[in-house]
Amino acid sequence: MAWGKHGPLPISNFTSPHECVNWDRLMEWVEPRSFDAFEEGMLVHPKFGPAFIDGEPANHREDDMSSGH
Questions:
Q1: How far is the C-alpha of 58 from the C-alpha of 48, rounded, in Å?
Q2: Which residues pair with 2 in a beta bridge?
């Protein structure tokens, strides 16, 4: 994940190297470390501010989410 240049939502990097994983073992590690990304103030873009307001995406540009940059 990275902050986009044109909007407040983080964007994915689908070109990252990856490998197969034991999902049960991964979930045992993930669950106690999970958080609610929609919680007010949890994701705050350094330029555009909060990514979510009242549980809804903040104003953003469509092309920022689909461009992969």
A1: 9
A2: 11
Helix (H, G, I), strand (E, B) or coil at 24: helix
**Which of 5, 13, 3 is CA-nearest to residue 68?**
13
The span from the CA of 41 to the CA of 67, in Å, is: 25
CA–CA separation, 48 and 11 (whole Å)? 14
Element (H, E) at 45: strand 44-45
- For residue 62, give Cα distances in angstroms to 21, 24, 66: 32, 35, 7
What's the pLDDT tens digit per position in 15-57? Answer: 878 788 899 999 999 999 998 888 888 889 999 888 888 878 8
Show the tokens assigned to 33.
């470390």
Which residue type does 33 have? R
